[in-house]
Amino acid sequence: MTYRIRGLEPGQFASLFAMDEAGLAARLSRRVVAGEGRYPCRVSLRDADPGEELVLTNYTNHAVDTPYRNTFAIFVRRGAVAADHVDELPPVLRHRPIALRGYDAGGDLRQAALAVEDDVDAAIRTLLVDEAVAYIDAHNARHGCFAARIERYDGVSHD
Where are the domains of the chain? Predict the structure, then answer.
């Protein structure tokens, strides 16, 4: 079964890079310069290089009217282009523990899995065996932040 993972639409974050610190703070955001370590961009779905400018912002990745609504901090790189991966994992889902939450079409949690040994692809495919799982949200298992949405893909874009 085929799946698709796309980065978030960069336009929704563009105005943040033009704001001063007070404006960012009012939007529950702050400017960050990547250092050593991991700064996973949710648009490009790769870690920022040291010295790259990012915005750390509060983002609602699961905007549903159920108890499973989810909001958390994410990084977005300046000038990032949205990634698009079909049946392959982007860098932000490799070499780190990933929690996978499979939701039904109504936004309720149906299944969950934890991938800790770079076995995210296998865990995704296992969750998608359940036809009631409409999509999967991946989160960094250690920090809990949203990493990416995984959708079933039939080869046709439904944008």
Answer: 3-152
